[in-house]
Amino acid sequence: MILGKEQIEDSNQENLSRHKKNHEFISDQINNAEEVIKKLIDFQVAIPSWALGTGGTRFGRFPGGGEPRSLEEKIEDIGLLHALNGSSGAISLHIPWDIPEDSDVIKNLAAQHGLRFDAMNSNTFQDQPDQKLSYKFGSMQHVDKAVRKQAVDHNIEVIKYGKELGSKSLTVWLSDGSTFPGQLNFRKAFLNTLESLREVYAALPPDWKMFVEYKAYEPNFYSTTVGDWGQSLLYTSKLGPQAYTLVDLGHHLPNANIEQIVALLLMEGKLAGFHFNDSKYGDDDLTVGSIKPYQLFLIFNELVEGMDARNMNHANDLAWMIDASHNVKDPLEDLLQSVEAIMIAYAQSLILERKKLVEAQNNNDVVTAQEILQKAFRTDVRAIVAEARLRAGGALNPLSVFRNEKVRENLIKERGSKTTATGL
Ligand code: PSV
Ligand code: MN
Ligand code: MN
What we know:
It comes from Hanamia caeni. This is Sugar isomerase. GO terms for molecular function: isomerase activity; metal ion binding. By secondary structure, the chain is α/β, with parallel strands linked by helices. It contains 15 helices and ten strands. The chain has one domain: TIM Barrel (Alpha-Beta Barrel), CATH 3.20.20. Helices cover 48% and strands 10% of the residues. The radius of gyration is 22 Å and the shape is globular. The protein binds alpha-D-psicofuranose and manganese (II) ion (2 copies). The site of one manganese (II) ion (MN) has 5 residues, from loops.
């Protein structure tokens, strides 16, 4: 066993008296601490199978050792995260990187770790070794109907795997687009894509959702066929009530007001959920909250406001996923940091004095509105988040348990120092 319950409990004992003081202090400052803790305990963030290894660059890859060699080991890694923080209770798979050999075995293993299967992701942005037709010039948009059919069939196969595992959603991200002006007829590319998406949509089980993820650029650098939230919303509106728009924080043009996009998608009942990450330049896929934590808080502020207005359940009505991976940190430590950043932003948006904000807005009191937002953002809610983790059976300080118990060293001993997980 890489990490046992006793090790987490021992570490919690050591940190308990200091934590209690911090928790009492913050609980005195806000009036809804208990309610916030309950919501935090319910809130689970799905971990992408492809974030468990170092990667995220088309240049060098520098594996740190002990990376998962199979889907089983990926599930074990996420089980470790979930044992440490109590908030990583779901896994998002990417096909064909994660094809389950025996779905029952995989399902049981996940259940042993308290994990469920979040959205399934299809991949028509790479050519696989045994693939008949190439996606070099796109998949669902392709001028050749046979290529489009291959992409549709792949997505239907992904749904089949997802059904076996108990997933309830499919995320379609297309790298389709063009790199040079004149390469593509935009209207035909859109219509071909819509037709292909419709065929996939028709294969969705009635209790499934389809998420259409947009991205401004990369790998194509002139146009992307699902390039922004407007285009995604156009597709999902035409597709029907089971189709939603997925926001990946790194997929916008610089300085886009993501919180406003989120508010409007939510208002229209068309927001699927998130791929959380952070970025300074483009689709950098950096640790959540590492570059623009205020933006993350502002997004959560809109989410809480908009979900409450529609009587939505924070924990279950949207899909919360991380999509981050890079080269320099231990991937598991990095994911612990990402989940923590999400929980902090969520907690801060739950303590915001919302009635006072509405009042300030109605009085055009811009100064007070800003004060209210920043008061919540500048409140140190880490002890509240830690208390939620403690009550969920996790660690007060997940990162120090990870290091003190030498989790990575033990994974390297078990799996070897030269392993590379599948992914980008
Ligand atoms: C594309 O940049 C993306 O954000 C999509 O979600 C992919 O599925 C994922 O990254 C992995 O490449
Ligand atoms: Mn993504
Ligand atoms: Mn991306």
